[in-house]
Sequence to fold (146 residues):
Amino acid sequence: MMNIKMIAFNDIVDEKNKERPTGHLTPIESGRDIPFVIKRIYYLTRVPENTIRGFHAHRQLEQVLLCLNGKVTISVSTPYEKQMITLNDPAKGLYIGPMVWREMYDFSPGSVLVVLASEHYNEADYIRDYRNYCEIAQEYLKGEPL
Ligand code: T46
Fold:
């Protein structure tokens, strides 16, 4: 689907001592592992059961979503396509570029969803009305292969 992709980060496991595992270390470098310079980080925690968040798209913002604990499902869509992606691996991130409608649901208890963003917070970049989104997205997608 356009403007989304999974990113696999370097999942470093020190295997020197097999009897005594020491866990995973996952480095993330702005502009290298992430395809933009990170200007903002925020996270969603303590989300009650059956909550659905999101219901918007961004005009310009690029983001990478990572679930550091537990799991959460992200629905990403355009007027023509829809995909559901479950994040449950702290070494994988979901890149979402401009003009993709997103909803986040099925947060497991204790889940931690971290978002790395390309810009500071700007409410003017949000499209929160779905009909308005479809009109703008159809124009944006003209000429894009579907
Ligand atoms: C997104 C998904 C994945 C701020 O003041 N600063 C911020 O950096 C953010 C992200 C939000 N806010 C305020 C704006 C609202 O009054 O926090 C309140 C909740 O934001 P919102 O309803 O947009 O939250 P979500 O979880 O629906 O969406 C968020 C991000 O806003 C959005 O960019 O892509 O997470």
